[in-house]
Amino acid sequence: MLSLHHETLPADVSQTNAEPTATHEFVDIADYQKRQTTLESYGLLDTEPEAVFDKITRLATDIFDVPVALISLMDFDNERQWFKSCHGLDTRQSDLSTSFCLHAVLSDTTLVVPNALQDDIFKDYSLVQDDPHMRFYAGAPLHTPEGVAIGALALIDFEPREALSETQVTMLETLASVVVDEILLRRSLEQQCRIEAELHEFKLKPAEAKLERYEAELLTANAKLEVARSMQTSLQPRQEDIHAAADLDIATYASPAEDVGGDYLDVIALGDSVRIGIGDVTGHGFESGLLMVMVQTAVSALVHSGISNPEVIISVLNKTLYNNLQRLDIDKSLTLSLLEYDSGVMTVSGQHEHMLRIAPTGEVDAVDTFALGFPLGLEPDISQYAEQMRFDMAPGAGVVLYTDGITEAENAAGEFYGLGRLEAAIDRAWQQHDTCAAIKQAILNDLHRYTGTQDLLDDVALVVIKRKTAC
């Protein structure tokens, strides 16, 4: 019977305040055995550090601005939590009796402790009272396909912090799913290597059957690695923000290409004004998707902190991204336009694709944003390039924003859809339809008619904004 030298953990660990005693039996030995067996089946314990997991914890510290991020695995047999990766602390394991992650694992939900010193459960833990004097903790369980939480992706700070927002919790849980996907891929690759060794040893027929199964598992794991796609989907603009301005009609669309990518699209309501952001990260893949998440988090934080000037937001955001990209040795950048609408006036800043202004009658004016900024992440300071323009939006007038996945979409002959066709499609749709949702769909229908059966090779993002004629 497993015993731990700490307080007994009931099923709902979030509501216990039991005093530590000498030795207690673990609450559910069947559950403990299942968790331990599942963990051991992945072959992770006491393995060497691996770059892919270290990269995730390093990115987590940058995204959430914490000094420590770790991937913790619950090793009940040895009464320890073992760290597959630990960025910010020079350790590989700690006693299970003082594990915050254990509470997250057993409660099977994300745990956030803003100030452990004021928390009835954790305030007497040695990690809180003594070195390293932990204060803030946030941990998302690592759920395997077997439905078992074997550990947690955790954030740690030595100063109290505000509780994570709903968006940040979603981001942490998404990164935890990335960890699980990499664990699955790692096991699949190991199994494939073992099968290939059997083939080499002339066990061809029985090994072929196993290889087919493991190749199918590998394909499944690879499919789950569309993490950037899921990030983009989970961080789509909220409907309450889209409908916040009573005199605006807004419709948005974002779709990653076959390869995961990093188009940024967001609508943020604050008071009586609405901020709209659109951007395009260079390249595709995991790093582009995570850079998009960094941008979304930073812009949201700046806006909600009271900074309203788009020029200032662009400059501060660039410094943050430049520093992170240098630290992570990632060769990425992005174009970005930020717009603010308030009482019939639109302000725009930042360099991106042409901003398309539409008159109430449907005429389209392509506004070059080149002089309004500079690509983010290439230079440490772009404040000298950050400019803004302001214009009145009459009732019935509007703005269309897009990424180059639309204008550079190709037909069967390899010809681009182009800005001219986009303008013509907007002109027709503006005259034929009243709502932005209908206008957006008309534009997309025209795009797909042009491309036919050709796959879209780049991410597509589209925002249609129209000032209502009556409120």
Question: If you had to describe this structure to a student in words, what would you say it looks like?
Answer:
This protein has 471 residues and is α+β, with helices and mostly antiparallel strands. The chain is 38% helix and 23% strand. It folds into two domains: 3-182, GAF domain (Beta-Lactamase, 2-Layer Sandwich), CATH 3.30.450; 236-467, PPM-type phosphatase domain (Phosphatase 2c, domain 1). A hairpin with a 5-residue loop joins β14 and β15. α9 (286-304) packs antiparallel against α10. Residues 1-29 have low confidence and may be disordered.
Question: What does the average pLDDT come to?
Answer: 85
Provide the CATH topology of the largest domain: Phosphatase 2c, domain 1
Number of helices: 13
Low-pLDDT runs: 1-29
What oligomeric state best describes the polypeptide chains here?
single chain
- Strands ordered across the widest β-sheet: 5-4-3-8-7-6
Q: Which percent band covers the strand fraction?
A: 15-25%
CATH superfamily of the largest domain: PPM-type phosphatase domain
> What would you call the shape?
globular
Total tally of structural domains? 2
Overall structural class, as computed from helix and strand content, comes to alpha+beta
Whole-number radius of gyration? 26 Å
Tell me the major beta sheet.
6 strands, antiparallel
Intertermini distance: 69 Å
What's the CATH architecture name of the largest domain? 4-Layer Sandwich
Percentage of helical residues? 25-40%
- CATH class of the largest domain, named Alpha Beta
> What's the total number of strands?
18
